Amino acid sequence: MTKKVRVIGAGLAGSEAAIYLAEKGHKVELIEMRPKYKTGAHTSDYPAELVCSNSLGSIDILSASGLLKQEATILGSTLFNIAKKCSVPSGNSLSIDRFGFCKEVKKIIDSKENIKIINEKYEKIDTSVPTIIATGPLSANELAKNIKEEFGEDNFHFFDAIAPIVEKSSINFDKAFWASRWDKGSADFINCPFDKEQYENFYNILINAQKAELHDFEAQYFEGCMPIEVMASRGIDTLRFGPMKPVGLFDKRIKTEFKKNQFYAVVQLRQDDKLANLYNLVGFQTNLKWGEQKKLIQSIPGLENASIVRYGVMHANTFINSPKILNKTLNTKKYENIFFAGQLTGVEGYCESISTGLFAAINMDRYLKQKDMIKLDNTTILGALIDYITFENHKKFQPINSNWGIIKELDEDKKKLKKDKNLKNQLRSKRALEEIKKIKQIIEE
Ligand SMILES: Cc1cc2nc3c(=O)[nH]c(=O)nc-3n(C[C@H](O)[C@H](O)[C@H](O)COP(=O)(O)OP(=O)(O)OC[C@H]3O[C@@H](n4cnc5c(N)ncnc54)[C@H](O)[C@@H]3O)c2cc1C
Prior knowledge:
Largest sheet: 6 strands, antiparallel
Bound molecules: flavin-adenine dinucleotide
Structural class: alpha/beta
Strand order of the largest sheet: 10-11-12-13-9-14
Shape: globular
Order of helices and strands: EHEEHHEEHEEHEEEEHHHEEHEEHEHHHH
């Protein structure tokens, strides 16, 4: 029997989900507010519009982004196939003719008799109809308000103010050391210590660095948010009395009297993921351009060769507190038939949005057919992303894109793999694709 299902938002995640469900024989209502209402970033009336860059990132399956595309393609993505058809030359990455792409997506949606497009603003979640909500980083306010009512005031965010995240394996522990302030609790923080000269060098890079521009629609969100560059503009010592304060932090490898400050300033890093591969710079939210951030981070003692998996950003970004709200199957803990997908779940990026749109649709199809829903292993990059956004013990949940730091460690010899990054990525990729092919078989049974 054909079942009615709703998909809210004909963006990247919503279009992918609607097409998948239609192809599985369901009657889909695709509710999209454009062109009646605008988001501030979309410029056309087309579905699946890329709001900024026309690049979907690397196609190399030895990169996390390339692997994600390959996994989603195996699982049945329509949008990645269209993207390949609409690609423009750009070396080892997938860049596309943006309007060629969304016109093609529209053509496919229009060709499906069982997709009904409704151009309205969806304002209140109707739990009597199985629904995938994929309204993206610029979801309309009325729906945002209703999500807060349904899932809790604290479980909804309007912007990212993210501190950079680095891979622990790239930190130089000859300089950095483990400690907690005044030895309280276990020594969970990684500390990067500065002398006066190093701090002054860091400060000079910071105050001369260029900032990224905010869009007009974003400015409203950032009152009351204090990026490090704003703190630094208030005086050379402001950071030393704020997030870089050195008091109570001692490197026990150095003989000293543990009452005085051992260092002039300290940057602390806190565990960011379940596997403890990733660490974020505490209190370092920033809106500096990425090249400037790299220069600044690599001027921190111990982070000279830091591999930065996530730069700091400050931008408008509506996202739910997925660790509290969602299951690993992307439906909500509160309502089994209500799913979220796309950037609204706290994944970040075009490919991540398409892939979670597909995965929510796979599970929605299974829900409608009363089959067990699929949970992905974190040996796959899509599984690792979902694992990250649903991990309940984040100190402060912030969105994430695909990166190697979130995937499960390999069982092979760590020392050997540390030297051979290429081999490491080959093994990760092989393991992930084998797992995804097994999942594909289950889906087809
Ligand atoms: C300004 C900006 C620039 C970005 N640049 C990049 C980039 O260069 N590269 C990258 O990888 N990622 C980028 N992103 C992040 C992200 O990948 C994209 O926003 C992506 O489009 C998200 O996909 P989505 O399907 O979740 O949401 P969207 O593609 O935004 O789709 C959501 C859809 O829902 C509709 N909608 C919203 N509210 C309602 C409602 N209440 N009722 C009905 N319809 C509604 C919207 O009109 C929209 O069509 C950017 C984000 C922003 C905001």
